[in-house]
Amino acid sequence: MTERMKIVIPLTFFLIVVLLYFQFRNMTEVLIVLLSIPFALVGSVWLMHLLDYRVSTAVWVGIIALVGLAAQTGIVMIVYIDQAYEHRKQAGLVHDLNDIIWAHMEGTVKRVRPKLMTVSTMLVGLVPLLWATSSGADVMKRIAAPMVGGLLTSAFLTLEIIPVIYTYWRQEQLLWERLTVEGPKLLATLKLWRVVLSLGAGAAALLVVLPIYLEIGRFWWIFGLATAAFAFVVGAVVYLAVRPKAHRLIWPAAATV
After folding, report:
1. Taking the domains of the chain in order of start, what are their residue ranges?
2. pLDDT tens, residue by residue, 242-257
3. Looking at domain 2-177, which CATH architecture does it have?
4. Mean of the pLDDT values across residues 44-71?
5. Which of 224, 221, 222, 201 is nearest to 213 (CA)?
6. pLDDT at 137 over 70
7. Is 53 helix (H, G, I), strand (E, B) or coil?
8. For the chain, which terminus, N or C, has the lower number of CB atoms within 10 Å?
9. Would you tell me how many other CB atoms lie within 10 Å of the CB of residue 238?
């Protein structure tokens, strides 16, 4: 089971990332949607702890199904927000962070009812399995438990956290659009250090997963992880140090965020 899961889980994750990329054509949006997955796993872990379930093949099947559901609900959230944002932008109503907040608030409010309807419908079908006693109930309970717990936490956290993160990403996107004309040198600097921090984060994530599949010397693994973390920290610090100057250039009357 362990050897099969080493193939199935990365393959599932890869397919989800590819499908998300085809939908958004932007890796940052893909990563924001994927944030709904750890939010969902929080509920899975807690419910399995409360029910005293151990990790098993059935539990992994439930988690894999939950990952797909969390990504799906995240997609719909982003689509609603994008529609509201593009509508306001085309009308010439998006100029700064406050305008972005109002646009995203409009999209998020429209998403509340569909989100609650989706989650409620799934829970109606899954919750009875937790009390099932018929043949095969033990397996079905362990498939349903991570899905039920994950749906409960992702329903709240996706509505609360993702719009906030997405709002600040939109502000950064708007800042870059304005810098293309008003501050190309600052934009080039920001792009450079974003590449550095992105490479550091990607390398660190790869090194965390790599020991599952390959044998790596402990020294080289720690050295690589430390180097990746250093690149990420330096890239993030320099980016955040340069950003206020770019912000003041585009929005001189606004307080630096």
Report:
1. 2-177, 183-257
2. 999 998 888 886 654 4
3. Up-down Bundle (1.20)
4. 86
5. 221
6. yes
7. coil
8. N
9. 17
